[in-house]
Amino acid sequence: KQRVKIDQWFSSTKKFSCCGKEKEMPLSERVYKCSCGFVLDRDHNSAINIKNEGLRLLALS
Predict the structure, then answer these.
(1) What is the pTM of this model?
(2) How are beta strands 39-41 and 31-33 bridged, if at all?
(3) Measuring CA to CA, which residue among 46, 60, 57, 61 is closest to residue 5?
(4) Is 41 part of a structural domain of the chain?
(5) β-pair partners for 33
(6) What's the number of domains the chain is made of?
(7) Rounded CA separation 36/45 (Å)
(8) Shortest CA distance to 61 belongs to which of 9, 7, 4, 10?
(9) Which helix (H) or strand (E) holds 31?
(10) Using an 8 Å Cβ cutoff, are 51 and 43 in contact?
(11) Residue 44 lies in a domain
């Protein structure tokens, strides 16, 4: 296992993990519904985005 530090201002909650589109959403909205048909819990979507960003940073190093 390896630990990777991502930027604290990385916008994990504004990006759809399926297609990369970004959308402003109020914190009260808990489910992502993308125009491509993707539906997922906000926290799960953010976790996927954080994981993908960590993998991207690992590939650059």
Answers:
(1) 0.83
(2) antiparallel
(3) 57
(4) yes
(5) 39
(6) 1
(7) 15
(8) 4
(9) strand 31-33
(10) no
(11) yes
Structural domain harbouring 46: 11-61
Q: Nearest 10 degrees: CA dihedral of 33, 14, 41, 32?
A: -10
pLDDT tens digit string along 4-42?
999 999 988 888 888 888 888 888 889 988 888 889 999
Check residue 5 and give its pLDDT. 93
Identity of the amino acid at 55: L
45, burial (CB in 10 Å: exposed 0-12, middle 13-18, buried 19+)? buried
Does pLDDT of 57 surpass 90? yes
- The model's confidence at residue 56, banded by pLDDT at 50, 70 and 90, is very high
